[in-house]
Amino acid sequence: MATARLPPIPAGAAIRWVARRLDRAKLTYGHGTESAVDDAAALVFHAAGWPHSAAPEAYDWQLTLEARRALAQLVQRRIEERLPSAYLTGVTWFGGHEIRVDPRVLVPRSPIAELIESRFSPFIDPARVRRILDIGTGSGCIAIACAHAFPGAVVVAADLSAAALEVARDNIRRHGLDGRVETRLSDVYDGLGGERYDIIVSNPPYVPQAVVDALPPEYGHEPEMGLASGADGLDAVRRILDGARRHATPGAILVVEVGDTQDAVEATWPRLPFVWLDFERGGGGVFLLTLE
Q1: What kind and span of H or E run contains 199?
Q2: CA 258, CA 170: separation in Å to the nearest integer?
Q3: How buried is residue 284: exposed, middle or buried, by Cβ count under 10 Å (0-12/13-18/19+)?
Q4: pTM of the model
Q5: What residues form DSSP beta bridges with 93?
Q6: What domains can you pick out in the chain, each with its CATH number?
Q7: Tens digits of per-residue pLDDT, 48-67?
């Protein structure tokens, strides 16, 4: 994409132009954006150095030559390398909170954000929540959103990946939450000792290995350990369920995203009274259980 092919035009026109380019390239979306237009907007605003809060006024602003050159490089990489736009811009949003990301972590995209915004109502009294555990924290997005939603609680952000925890710690610092969000190198519960929590929440790996192997190229830039979970996709879920009672306080809730493996979860644990949650903004495959 030569810069000369994108003359000085307003940002809104640039977004439409880039979206047409992305559409023709037949890319895959779902990493913090849902369409070519979403991707195009993220790339245009990043290239221009504008905050997304500047929209819609910014749609009439002109892109500088420098911004057009930067945009040309971003679009070329998005198409040729199939890099998710969040990795190109280094930022995405989760539950209204800005989260920094790179290929050390998955791009946040869980419907659990909506549940956190409602403070897990009506399933638990927010006033009694003192400790929250986020298993497989990755970028720290769920832990950070929980800390904002429960300002009186301590949140433990656990992950098996030391590289992911580096990203999480950076995000925690950016949100000024060093004193309330603790990072732990932990394989599910193994690094937590006998600690107990009022809320245990997780968006663990839950994709069968064969499905991971067949995913579009965009997913290949994400850490496989954050996606694959054995032949049936349930390896991590098994361990989360097996240890939940030992780490839950009386009246605690367990919330886990399992995506398209929902049917397999129900078939594997037919006696567990899963509550499958609905979300106004879309998404599913998230269950809730109480300690009882």
Answers
A1: strand 197-202
A2: 27
A3: middle
A4: 0.94
A5: 98
A6: 3-89 (no CATH), 95-290 (3.40.50.150)
A7: 999 988 999 999 999 999 99
